[in-house]
Amino acid sequence: MRKYVVGSVPTVMYIPEYISPAEEDLLLKNIYQAPLSKWKTLKNRKLQNWGGVVHEKGLLAQQLPSWLKTVTNRIYEESKLFPSAINHVLINEYLPDQGIMPHQDGPAYMPVVAILSLGSPVVMDFVPHPNLESTEQSSENDTQDMIHEPSPPEPKIPSKYLPFSLLLMPRSLLIFKDMAYSGYLHGIKDSEDHCYDEAVNATNGPSHDAGTLTGLKNDGEDGGDKVIHRTTRRISLTCRLVTKVHKHLIKI
Ligand SMILES: O=C(O)CCC(=O)C(=O)O
Ligand SMILES: [Fe+2]
Predict the structure, then answer these.
(1) Contact indicator for 51, 90 with CB cutoff of 8 Å
(2) I want to staple 240 with a disulfide (CB 3.0 to 4.6 A). Which of 96, 109, 128, 197 is the partner?
(3) Is the dihedral of CA 113, 213, 20, 34 positive or negative?
(4) Closest by Cα among 149, 148, 99 to 124
(5) Please, which residues have CB within 8 angstroms of residue 164's CB and are 6 or more apart in sequence?
(6) Which residue intervals make up region (Disordered) (predicted)?
(7) pLDDT digits (tens, 9 = 90+) for 226-242
(8) For the CA of 188, the nearest ligand
């Protein structure tokens, strides 16, 4: 995995074209074949929860469907970064003007996450946690989401970590863990235009292939102002591992 490290935080890895267009289509087909009741609509996106219900005290586990296991097992085996098989997947759907506020993933998960992107490209921003000391505490949270909103921004220690951004192209896999997981907040702006000038993986992006990829434009004559214009939805699969699993599986 070391060859996929991008940027200056060594626990951030990005693999372009992790799945093929045919695999992307198959995943999308399965996602949109799920019953409508599987979707939970939030203010700024909608999501499907697979693998069971995550509680502070652990996972009320439900088997992942085989179409998800194919991809989660591959990530588990190839990355060698999860101590056991991935057992939980959140599928988020974002419309072009939707995003996700800067947050830290909840404490129920192992501090490693793999995010597979489908559909429209987006930029994900990482900012150092405003109060590193508060990352130990568990605050109230939305158990469906299992995300933590940042505590009030009153930095106790100046962070030596710098913000950074990543360009998440369709079919790519992003993995981040440890310091990138617990020392940073990650989020996606809820705007239709995302600038990827500063993205640490911009060379993996559209610059090599400008014009052939939809939604990407280079406004600057000499490479400045690289902008993604989001015209379609983005779907992401957030794959994680909850180590504490309740014994009684939910039967479907
Ligand atoms: O959609 C994404 O890429 C990020 C999703 C995320 O951060 C989450 O579900 O916790
Ligand atoms: Fe997250």
Answers:
(1) no
(2) 109
(3) positive
(4) 99
(5) 7, 8, 9, 12, 125, 126, 198, 199, 200
(6) 129-156
(7) 899 999 999 999 999 99
(8) 1
Confirm or reject: Cβ of 146 under 6 Å from ligand 1: no
Q: Which residue has the tokens 């790519």?
A: 172
> Which token pair is 168?
């998440």
- Predicted complex ipTM exceeds 0.90: yes
Q: Who contacts 93 (Cβ-Cβ below 8 Å, separation ≥6)?
A: 39, 45, 46, 47, 233, 234, 235
Q: Extract the tokens encoding 49.
A: 């929860």
CA 58 – CA 65 distance, rounded (Å): 20
- The one-letter amino acid code at 168 reads L
pTM: 0.86
